[in-house]
């Protein structure tokens, strides 16, 4: 016969915390009464009674000055008010998971929501939850009751609803309940089953599925222990016992593999006693899921716990993630206080939810920012730990003038913020590198490169510069350019700016200028007649001056030269159609071809003497002319209306 112990059996951190808070009060010689049994385990309750703890059922039973311990199940608001009216000091040992449900239902009720509660209405935890709902609630035990509730309401539904569960509610039942929720109703769903409960139930099911018999150890009135028993017996023969004294009553014949689990209110020493008794009876060393030593280590959980340690603000601690929701992360510190990491103390990135960053079971390095002895909670920060590590990286980046990369997170007065390794980097507007006509909003959400200008060791923020990176990149690009640049080499570049005398083109970190005369074979008054900012141009180097860092670029192509085309297509003596484009005192200029004008001298306007050019032609007239002269060197063409008319008359 072999014995296996479930990995997550026994005290949960909420129960363990409550017991230790009570023990600490006794060690301080306080007169203490618990409002109801501290936990659902008669052995522990009897042990506490032997130490002088009184168990009362109502606040009215308190003696003057007596400390009252609110057990892990929690109580309703009315009970808190009654204790306050009496003036008795309070030790609030409410489980943080339960406390969170109180906060949820109180907030939802205040907003007018109707509360649905999955659980046992007679259980003290559920009674405590009800006490924060202002009578605006409905408790259901399973999906059948919940479905019936909605059917009876028909169309008279509350405007808004919220649904929560008892922390020890069966996870499988919870999933079935969610399936019967009407999709058309505005119901806010809160996942409030304790992660430790869910894990304990899952482990029990897994162990029971491969065991011949299961022994579930815990109080007969313990809700979560009963649920473990119900889960286990679905897979194999199961027994629910409170302690080792009941082992003799069990029929374990024929069981080759025995599994052991325990409820959240079962202390380690009782589990230890059960294991040792079975070992003695079976003369076998128990084997666990991992190794035999784990049983003994587990059994020392109370004796060797460190709940007595006192946390202080600024302490660095390690915590294990117990629960994750949209607003916070609950962690087990293995100390007196449970830890809570709010969403804004988890990360600087507002776009991420807690579930995007951590999951149940993760080990986190944290810093204590506040301790509440009354609630037994420690407010923690992961963000501050990340910031401290990030600051060191930022300082190193400044020393090495390293280029960093991050997303622009927010636009603030005078600049923008980015976050690098949890550290806020402020980039002034003057260091963004944006043109004057641009707005900072253009950078939001963009991934940018920057260097650190200021990173004081005692500050959490630093000052960065995008412009400095751009400058570095330009300098590197310039150096690379001058190493390979030569006259005639071609480039494709973007037009960055225009002036009256030309266009500046980015060749990849360095600008060259195309003179206005190089932009077109035609006469133009401004570069904008040919190109615009942002255009991509194919250019070539006409001239270089490395000393002055000047680059002259050419854009016009020889093959596009209208004179070359004209020479190839026209000759002296040819009659062509021309358009008068301008008039001067000595004649008129007419366009013969694209980019080519010819001069009609006043003597060539007609077969008579012409005193005024405008008496014969006007701008815009289309006339027949004869090419009478071509001066290629000086790019001059002489044309004649008179000669064209003569030729026309001869024909």
Keywords:
651 residues; alpha/beta; Cobalt-precorrin-4 Transmethylase, domain 1; OB fold (Dihydrolipoamide Acetyltransferase, E2P); 6 domains; 17 helices
Report on the structure:
It is a single chain. With 651 residues, the protein is of the alpha/beta class. The protein has 6 domains: 2-10 and 198-299, Cobalt-precorrin-4 Transmethylase, domain 1 (3-Layer(aba) Sandwich); 96-193, Cobalt-precorrin-4 Transmethylase, domain 1 (3-Layer(aba) Sandwich), CATH 3.40.1010.20; 316-381, OB fold (Dihydrolipoamide Acetyltransferase, E2P); 388-465, Nucleic acid-binding proteins (OB fold (Dihydrolipoamide Acetyltransferase, E2P)); 485-556, OB fold (Dihydrolipoamide Acetyltransferase, E2P), CATH 2.40.50.140; 566-650, Nucleic acid-binding proteins (OB fold (Dihydrolipoamide Acetyltransferase, E2P), Beta Barrel). Helix content is 28%, strand content 29%. The chain contains 17 helices and 32 strands. The strands form 7 sheets. The chain has a 5-stranded mixed β-barrel with strand order 13-14-15-17-16. Strands 18-19-20-22-21 form a 5-stranded mixed barrel. The longest helix has 19 residues, at 466-484. The protein is elongated. Residues 284-308 have low confidence and may be disordered.
């Amino acid at each position: 016969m072999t014995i296996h112990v479930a990995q997550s059996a026994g005290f949960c951190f909420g129960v363990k915390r409550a017991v230790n808070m009570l023990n600490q009060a006794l060690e301080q010689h306080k007169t203490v009464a618990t409002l109801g049994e501290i936990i659902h385990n008669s052995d522990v309750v009897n042990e506490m009674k032997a130490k002088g703890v009184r168990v009362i059922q109502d606040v009215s039973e308190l003696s003057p000055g007596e400390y009252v311990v609110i057990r892990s199940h929690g109580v309703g608001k009315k009970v808190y008010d009654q204790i306050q009216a009496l003036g008795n000091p309070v030790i609030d040992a409410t489980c943080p998971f339960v406390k969170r449900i109180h906060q949820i239902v109180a907030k939802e009720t205040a907003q007018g929501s109707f509360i649905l509660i999955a659980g046992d209405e007679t259980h003290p935890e559920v009674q405590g939850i009800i006490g924060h709902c202002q009578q605006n609630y409905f408790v259901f035990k399973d999906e059948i009751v919940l479905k019936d509730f909605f059917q009876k309401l028909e169309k008279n539904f509350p405007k808004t609803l919220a649904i929560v569960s008892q922390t020890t509610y069966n996870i499988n039942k919870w999933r079935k309940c969610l399936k019967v929720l009407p999709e058309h109703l505005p119901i806010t769903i809160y996942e409030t089953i304790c992660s430790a409960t869910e894990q304990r139930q899952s482990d029990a099911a897994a162990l029971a599925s491969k065991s011949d018999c299961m022994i579930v150890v815990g109080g007969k009135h313990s809700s979560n222990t009963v649920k473990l028993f119900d889960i286990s017996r679905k897979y194999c023969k199961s027994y629910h016992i409170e302690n080792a004294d009941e082992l003799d009553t069990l029929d374990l014949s024929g069981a080759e593999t025995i599994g052991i689990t325990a409820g959240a209110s079962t202390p380690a020493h009782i589990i230890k006693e059960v294991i040792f008794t079975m070992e003695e009876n079976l003369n076998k060393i128990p084997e666990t899921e991992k190794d035999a030593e784990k049983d003994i280590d587990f059994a020392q959980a109370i004796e060797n716990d460190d709940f007595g340690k006192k946390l202080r603000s600024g302490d660095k601690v390690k915590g294990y993630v117990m629960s994750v929701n949209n607003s916070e992360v609950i962690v087990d510190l293995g100390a007196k206080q449970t830890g809570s990491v709010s969403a804004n103390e988890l990360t600087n990135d507002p776009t991420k939810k807690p579930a995007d960053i951590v999951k149940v079971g993760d080990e986190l390095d944290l810093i204590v920012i506040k301790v509440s002895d009354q609630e037994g909670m420690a407010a923690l920060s992961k963000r501050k730990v990340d910031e401290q590590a990030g600051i060191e990286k930022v300082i190193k980046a400044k020393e090495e003038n390293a280029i960093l990369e991050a997303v622009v997170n927010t636009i603030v007065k005078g600049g923008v913020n980015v976050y690098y390794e949890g550290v806020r980097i402020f980039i002034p507007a003057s260091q963004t590198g944006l043109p004057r006509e641009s707005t900072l909003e253009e950078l939001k959400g963009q991934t940018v490169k920057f260097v650190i200008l200021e990173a004081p060791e005692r500050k959490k923020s630093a000052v960065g510069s995008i412009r400095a990176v751009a400058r570095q990149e330009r300098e590197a690009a310039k150096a690379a350019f001058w190493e390979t640049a030569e006259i005639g080499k071609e480039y494709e570049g973007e037009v960055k700016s225009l002036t009256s005398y030309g266009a500046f083109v980015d060749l990849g970190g360095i600008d060259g200028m195309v003179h206005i005369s190089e932009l077109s074979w035609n006469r133009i008054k401004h570069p904008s007649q040919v190109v615009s900012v942002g255009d991509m141009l194919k250019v070539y180097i006409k001239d270089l001056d490395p000393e002055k860092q000047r680059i002259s670029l050419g854009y016009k192509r020889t093959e596009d030269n209208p004179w070359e085309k004209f020479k190839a297509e026209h000759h002296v003596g040819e009659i062509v159609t021309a358009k008068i484009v301008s008039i001067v005192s000595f004649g008129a200029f007419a366009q013969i071809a694209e980019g080519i004008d010819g001069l009609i001298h006043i003597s060539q306007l007609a077969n008579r003497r012409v005193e005024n050019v405008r008496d014969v032609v006007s701008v815009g007239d289309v006339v027949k002319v004869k090419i009478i002269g071509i001066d290629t060197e000086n790019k001059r063409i002489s044309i004649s209306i008179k000669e064209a008319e003569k030729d026309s008359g001869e024909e």
